[in-house]
Structure formats: structure tokens, C-alpha cells
Amino acid sequence: MRGALAALLTREKDIEVVPAPPEYRHTVSQALSYRPDVVVIDVDGEEDRALGTSLELSARLPECRTLLVVGSATPEYLRRALARRVSGLIGRNSPCDTLPEGVRKVAAGERFIDPGLALLALSSAENPLTDREREVLRLAADGTPTREIADRLSLCVGTVRNHLNAVSRKTGARNRIDAIRIARESGWL
């Protein structure tokens, strides 16, 4: 994907592309070496790492801005990225001219958010579940029995049931399976 993004940007006369690092973990050191105006990061299932890299870049190289290219981002991830003030967000399936436009705007000090991603982030409900409720629901979604969930999380079986009931109530679900479906579709799991 990095090669495709680089090839797309190389066609632009006003954008110079520097070599991408051989591995994700070298992004910050390579940016410190080249000192680019914008670093384009392909999230590709590495949501937390991409946000961490973006934050580290802004701390260590404040004049460099980041533009995240996301594939199937959840509304919750998009809201977290926006809250952390990433410079730009673009969907991987956006039209080809969106990436160069985003790079130019971000380089100019503006924030650029792909309209489709902005709509996705704003149109879905915020996650009403606590961290513990998500943890219990995640295990339930994996098919883990209630007793085993209790053992793994050092909880009483009744507490696990209370968490699952709270999840069903908060999501408006009819049962545990419906709660899992709702939470997944909303990007809460």
C-alpha cells in the first residue's frame, strides 16, 4: 500500500516523496532524518500504532504534520483520532485526487478530514460501555462461557451477568447476541 500511495503522490509536480521506511517502527527516525512537512501513514490494522506514531511525531518534530490513511476504521477510532488532533484523515477508498489534496492542505497547516470519514465519526453514537463491560462482552463474543469469563477477569459469576445485562440495556439489545452485533456494528468492540 505504501508503494501505491507513493506512486500516486509522485505524479504531483508540487509534492516531493521521500523513501518510506522499511518497517513501521522506523517511521519517526526516518522523519527525523528527512524532516518532511507531512508524513502519510497507512493505518492498515495498526490503529493504535498509527495514533502513537502521529503523537510522537508531533512531539519530536512539531513542524511535521501527519495524514492517516484508513481502511475500515470504526467510528470510535475516528473520534479518537480527531480528539488527538491528527492533521488529516483519508479513507483508503477515497477518489485518487483526495490524497494529494489532503497532503497539500495539511502541509499548509490546515486540517483535512475526508468527508465520508467525518460523516461516519459524527453520525454514530458514542460508546456507552465501560472498559470492563467491553472486556466482558469481548470474551462473550468469543464464545467464552460466563463462568470462564468470571475466572479470567477475577469476578463473580453474578458480576459478569450484571455487566452483560448492563450492556444489553445500554445498547437496547434483546439479548447477548444482539448486544454483540450492535457493539460490533458500532465499532465498540
UniProtKB/TrEMBL annotation:
This is Response regulator transcription factor. SUPFAM superfamilies: C-terminal effector domain of the bipartite response regulators, CheY-like. It comes from the Bacteria. Residues 122-187 form the HTH luxR-type domain. Keywords: DNA-binding. InterPro entries: CheY-like_superfamily, Sig_transdc_resp-reg_C-effctor, Tscrpt_reg_LuxR_C, WalR-like, WH-like_DNA-bd_sf. It comes from Streptomyces shaanxiensis. PANTHER family: TRANSCRIPTIONAL REGULATORY PROTEIN DESR, TWO-COMPONENT RESPONSE REGULATOR.
